[in-house]
Amino acid sequence: xxxxxxxxxxxxxxxxxxxxxxxxxxxxxxxxxxxxxxxxxxxxxxxxxxxxxxxxxxxxxxxxxxxxxxxxxxxxxxxxxxxxxxxxxxxxxxxxxxxxxxxxxxxxxxxxxxxxxxxxxxxxxxxxxxxxxxxxxxxxxxxxxxxxxxxxxxxxxxxxxxxxxxxxxxxxxxxxxxxxxxxxxxxxxxxxxxxxxxxxxxxxxxxxxxxxxxxxxxxxxxxxxxxxxxxxxxxxxxxxxxxxxxxxxxxxxxxxxxxxxxxxxxxxxxxxxxxxxxxxxxxxxxxxxxxxxxxxxxxxxxxxxxxxxxxxxxxxxxxxxxxxxxxxx
Length: 329
Prior knowledge:
Elements: E1 6-11, H1 15-24, E2 33-38, H2 47-54, E3 59-61, E4 73-75, E5 81-84, E6 90-93, H3 105-116, E7 120-124, H4 133-141, E8 145-149, H5 158-166, E9 171-173, H6 178-186, E10 222-225, E11 232-235, E12 240-242, H7 243-281, H8 285-309
Parallel strand pairs: 1-2, 1-7, 2-4, 3-4, 7-8, 8-9
Antiparallel strand pairs: 5-6, 10-11, 11-12
Helix pairs in contact: 1-2, 3-4, 4-5, 7-8
């Protein structure tokens, strides 16, 4: 049966204790799913086991592609953003860090607002800085409900205070009182209240038009000059490039970046294979297979780069080919 309501929770420092208090108050027959982001980075996390023990609902790390089901707690696994797509399935991405962390609360909150509209409840718990604030604002904009832990109840008040200072918050209360409130808020959820616009997948790398160009020499921003003649690009410490020189320098930067990536992938593959051999010598077959799989993945990605680097790049011709006449012709 489709789950028509979703509770999304963001937490950082001090968040485990707050989450334990929250889930303890949830009913076993909760008519919603709960998605949780804790700022664990790439570190190993036992949060699902802790939350399953603290309350009546089963908890697990989310897996990519699984459908959202009521009465379950899904925790973002280490090193992955957890988002919800418009078909209301969970997705894991290795997209760019947000607020200097991955997983982050904002991608989850934004995607939940898109998928569930007014049937999503966003919750910000204990943590430093401001992750969750922008996402909570998006939930509010799309008609969802916003809940924030009372800063006086939080071990670290940064995230709650940021949310309270920048978003119109519907409820502010201690974590231990949230369970009953959340159950009441999702009890009246009705099907299909969400907007389906802006269907781009959250939490992934995207290529938008650059706000500015950067200097191939130092990485600083550049200013374009020479509107009435050949364009020149000058960075803020003085490196200057004509149009052709700028293109040539950028091309070499791209090649260099690919070569660095190729070296890193080759080294990773070598490391993983060494660790696999060491595990086999110790009789650790499962660990050996895991390292072999990781090494194979790195090697496959390196092979993709090798093929790409071996291809001829399409680059602008130095001679006119579109009917343009050279100057003085």
